[in-house]
Specification:
The protein is about 45% helix and about 15% strand. Strand 4, helix 4 and strand 5 form a beta-alpha-beta unit. The protein contains 10 helices and 9 strands. NADP nicotinamide-adenine-dinucleotide phosphate binds next to helix 1 and helix 10.
Length: about 240
């Protein structure tokens, strides 16, 4: 147990990333209360069955009331809609962050909704797998991995330090970047490799009908490594590409 860093933490989105954060918060005792919110009843029920939090809400606006830290872990194309929903319920002094794989577009979507006095600090943990949903998460996912923050020009230094302390408690190494620079770096190390993998595996799938089973039969070489990337969640990657 590391000890309480925030009295109340709210997680919006409880898939691979959100549920991994939840498991670490619980294991390390980082929150006085952990509130979990996701849009569907089915995913929320599963989160409750897995005992990922202390309280469960389908309403994101209800879930963030009184929270000291709010972490948004939804596909990047939905981050603006979530920010709009929760904005009126955020209290002054709350730290609002996200985990989205792109940063400039998330800032453009979320920042206009953030009320005065709320510390919006965009973030991106460079950790994950090709799986999704609350069952896919696990404690320790972020250990030894980078978490990059792309603070805004007026970001409060004390709030940023507190958020860094949180990710350091999860075992992450922390860094800061300009949002556009982040997107350029991540495009080459993560986003383009995924696009290439989707294309190679898609082409092989088309080709397989021509050469019958040969593509599958001889696929144990370099091709196999592409299949893991190409098994990633299509909604998440559609949003990253857009
Ligand atoms: P995930 O396992 O598919 O979980 C997505 C979560 O977002 C679920 O709780 C889902 O809710 C919710 N959601 C989906 N569509 C939504 C919408 N339109 N509006 C509101 N909520 C919605 O995804 P993930 O892998 O955790 O990814 C979450 C974020 O982390 C993404 O922004 C991604 O770019 C980023 N990220 C992912 C990885 C990775 O390797 N996967 C790594 C670093 C960062 P329901 O199930 O209730 O529909």
């Amino acid at each position: 147990m590391t000890g309480i860093l925030f009295d109340r933490i709210t997680l919006i989105g409880i898939g691979l990333i959100g549920s991994s954060i939840a498991r670490d918060i619980k294991a390390l005792g980082l929150a006085g209360e952990l509130v979990i919110s996701t849009r569907s009843e089915a995913t929320l029920k599963r989160a409750e069955e897995l005992a990922l939090g202390d309280r469960y809400e389908t309403s994101a606006a209800e879930a963030v009331k009184g929270a000291d830290l709010v972490i948004v872990s939804v596909p990047v194309g939905s981050s603006g809609m979530v920010a709009e929903q929760i904005a009126p319920s955020l209290k002054p002094g709350t730290i609002l962050t996200d985990v989205g794989s792109t940063k400039a577009s998330v800032i453009a979507q979320m920042a206009p909704h953030v009320p005065q006095g709320v510390h919006f600090i965009p973030g991106h943990p460079l950790a994950g797998t090709e799986k999704s949903g609350p069952d896919a998460g696990f404690a320790g996912l972020f250990k030894g991995r980078w978490c990059i923050f792309t603070p805004l020009p007026d970001t409060d230094a004390a709030a940023l330090e507190k958020l860094k302390d949180f990710w350091i408690a999860l075992g992450s190494r922390v860094d800061e970047m300009d949002p556009q620079h982040h997107d350029k770096v991540l495009a080459i190390v993560s986003h383009l490799p995924h696009i290439i993998a989707y294309n190679i595996v898609g082409t092989a799938d088309d080709l397989e009908t021509v050469t019958e089973s040969e593509v599958i039969k001889y696929s144990a070489s370099g091709f196999r490594d592409f299949t893991r990337l190409a098994a990633s969640d299509p909604t998440m990657w559609r949003d990253v590409c857009l």
